[in-house]
Amino acid sequence: MRRFRPDLTWSDVTPKAAFLNRRQLIAGAAALGFAGPAAAKLSYAPSSYSTDAEPNTFEQITRYNNFYEFGTGKDEPMAYAGQLTTDPWAVKIDGLVEKPGDYDLADLLKGVALEERIYRFRCVEAWSMVVPWIGFELSEILERVGVQPGAKYVAFETLVRPEEMPGQNYPILDWPYREGLRLDEAMNPLTILATGLYGEEMPKQNGAPIRLVVPWKYGFKSIKSIVRISLTEAQPPCTWNMLQPREYGFYSNVNPEVDHPRWSQATERRIGGGLFAGRELTLMFNGYGDEVASLYAGQDLTKDF
Amino acid sequence: MSVADRINRAARRLPAWPIYLIGAALPVWLFWQGTTGGLGIDPVKAIEQRLGLWALKLIVAGLCITPLRRFAGVNLIRYRRAIGLVAFFYVVLHFLTWLVLDMGLLWSQALGDIAKRPYVTVGMVGLLALMPLALTSNDWSVRRLGALRWRLLHRLTYLAAIAGAVHFLWLVKAWPVEPFLYLGAVLGLLALRAIPRRGRTAA
C-alpha cells in the first residue's frame, strides 16, 4: 500500500463542496459542537502511508462512534460530546522517560509535522470505515521526551471528567479508559497521534483534542482524548482486556483467522454502502501487513490475539 | 366501575385486526426509512436491531396477558393471537435482515455462525420454537389439537421468550442495562405463572 502521491491532498479524494454542503444542512446542530464550530483549519502534508480507498464522509465519521464516555449508543458521542472542554488540555508523560512532566498540548504540538493519513479503520464489531486523519507519528513525541532503555511498553489513559462525560457516571467500563502498545508497535511509523480529520481540528466525539490511531489493530486500541502517556516495563492493563480477557487480547491485531468468541472476524461491513452492500473480506493486519507483520515474527497470533 | 372493568368494556369494542395492519405497516415504514437515510449512518444494523427489539417487546406483551387476567382481572385475551403472530413475523424479518443485509447472503459464514456462535444459536432456537406456534395460531388448529394439547404446545412461548432475551444479552459488548431489563421482565412474567392458584393446592 506504499504509494507516494506528493501532489495529492484530501480535496482530490472527496469533493470539498459536497461535504461543506452537508455541514450547512446540519448547521443547526453545530451548537452541540459536533461539527466543531469555527474549527481551525490545519496545515498538513500528504502521506505515502495513505490508502487510495475513498474515505467515508465527514458525517459518517462523526455520527457513528463508539466512545462509551458519552454513552454506549453510536449516536450518543455526537449528541453529548459538545460539552467537553478540550482547551486547556495537558498530557502527563511519565514513567521510564528522560523528560517527564505535564505537557501543555500546544507545547507538545510545537514543531510536529502534521500529515494526512487516510487509514482503513476496522472495529472489533466487524464494521469498517476509511478515515482521513490529520496527525503525526507517535515516535516524534517519544523521541522528544526520551525513552529510557528499560521501557518496553507505552500506556495511555483517557480523561476522566464525569460532569462532562455522562457515560462515566455508570460503571459500564472501569474508568479511566486505558490502552497500551508494545514499544516497537508505538514506534512504528503507521502509529500516529491524531489531532484532526478532514483537514480540521478533531471533532470532540472522535476523541478531541488528541487521540491514538493504530490502523492495523481493532478500533478500541486507538484510545481517544488522551491525558496520560506512560512508558513502562510491564505490559500495561487495557480496559477491554480487563473486562473480558477471553474476547479482547492485549494485541488485538485485525486478524480474519482469529474470531471474536462470539462473532466471526473473517468479514466486515463497510459503513456507508447502503442496504445491499453486503460484506467485504477482512484483511490480515487490516491490510497493513507489509508495514507491521515483521513486528510479530515468531509469535503465535492465535495465542497473542 | 373499576379500572379493570372499564378496560374490559373498551376491549370488547376494539377489534384485534388493527394490530395486524399496524404490525405489517411498521416494517414497510422501517425499510423505507432505511433507504432514505432516516435510520442514521448504519441502516442495516438499525433495521436488524429494531425488528429484534420489536419482536421481544411483543413477546413480553403477549406474556403479560395471562397474569393481567389472573391478578388484575383485565381480559385482553382476544389480542393475544395477533400479538403473537406479529411477534413471529418480526422475528422472521429480523432473521432475514441478518441473513440478507447483514451477512450479505454469505451462506457459509451464516451457517457457521448459527452453529458456532452461541448468541446466534440461541436466536435460532427462539425462531424455531415460534414456528409451530405460528402455524397453530388459528381456530382450526385449536379445535384439531384440543384445548389442553394446544395450551401445552404453546408453552413453547416460554422457551422462545427466554431465548430472545438471552440472545439480546449475549450479543452486546460489556453489560448495558437494557438487555437485563428484558430478561428480568421475561423471567418475572414466567415466575408469576408458577404461583399456585388458590383453592387448587393442598393445605
UniProtKB/TrEMBL annotation, chain A:
Family indicated by similarity: Belongs to the MsrP family.
Positions bound to Mo-molybdopterin: 65, 68-69, 123, 158, 206, 211, 222-224
Stored NCBIfam families: PRK05363.1 (NF003767)
Presence of keyword Glycosyltransferase: no
Domain Oxidoreductase molybdopterin-binding: 84-240
Known cofactor(s): Mo-molybdopterin
Function, in words: Part of the MsrPQ system that repairs oxidized periplasmic proteins containing methionine sulfoxide residues (Met-O), using respiratory chain electrons. Thus protects these proteins from oxidative-stress damage caused by reactive species of oxygen and chlorine generated by the host defense mechanisms. MsrPQ is essential for the maintenance of envelope integrity under bleach stress, rescuing a wide series of structurally unrelated periplasmic proteins from methionine oxidation.
Co-factor: note: Binds 1 Mo-molybdopterin (Mo-MPT) cofactor per subunit.
UniProt GO MF annotations: oxidoreductase activity
EC number: 1.8.5.-
UniProt cross-references to InterPro entries, sorted A to Z: MsrP, OxRdtase_Mopterin-bd_dom, OxRdtase_Mopterin-bd_sf
Highest taxon of the lineage: Bacteria
Keyword annotations: Metal-binding, Molybdenum, Oxidoreductase, Signal
Keyword Signal listed: yes
Reactions performed catalytically: L-methionyl-[protein] + a quinone + H2O = L-methionyl-(S)-S-oxide-[protein] + a quinol; L-methionyl-[protein] + a quinone + H2O = L-methionyl-(R)-S-oxide-[protein] + a quinol
Protein name (record): Protein-methionine-sulfoxide reductase catalytic subunit MsrP
Record note on quaternary structure: Heterodimer of a catalytic subunit (MsrP) and a heme-binding subunit (MsrQ).
UniProtKB/TrEMBL annotation, chain B:
Membrane topology: Multi-pass membrane protein
InterPro entries the UniProt entry points to: Fe3_Rdtase_TM_dom (IPR013130), MsrQ-like (IPR022837)
Record's keyword terms, sorted: Cell membrane, Electron transport, Flavoprotein, FMN, Heme, Iron, Membrane, Metal-binding, Transmembrane, Transmembrane helix, Transport
Principal cellular location given in the protein's record: membrane
Pfam families reported for this sequence: Ferric_reduct
Textual note on the cofactor: Binds 1 heme b (iron(II)-protoporphyrin IX) group per subunit.
Annotated TM spans: 14-32, 52-71, 83-107, 119-135, 156-173, 179-195
Domain Ferric oxidoreductase: 52-164
Subcellular localization, as worded in the UniProt entry: Cell membrane; Membrane
Cofactor(s) needed for function: heme b; FMN
Family label: Belongs to the MsrQ family.
Job description of the protein: Part of the MsrPQ system that repairs oxidized periplasmic proteins containing methionine sulfoxide residues (Met-O), using respiratory chain electrons. Thus protects these proteins from oxidative-stress damage caused by reactive species of oxygen and chlorine generated by the host defense mechanisms. MsrPQ is essential for the maintenance of envelope integrity under bleach stress, rescuing a wide series of structurally unrelated periplasmic proteins from methionine oxidation.
Subunit structure: Heterodimer of a catalytic subunit (MsrP) and a heme-binding subunit (MsrQ).
Protein name: Protein-methionine-sulfoxide reductase heme-binding subunit MsrQ
Organism this protein belongs to: Albidovulum salinarum
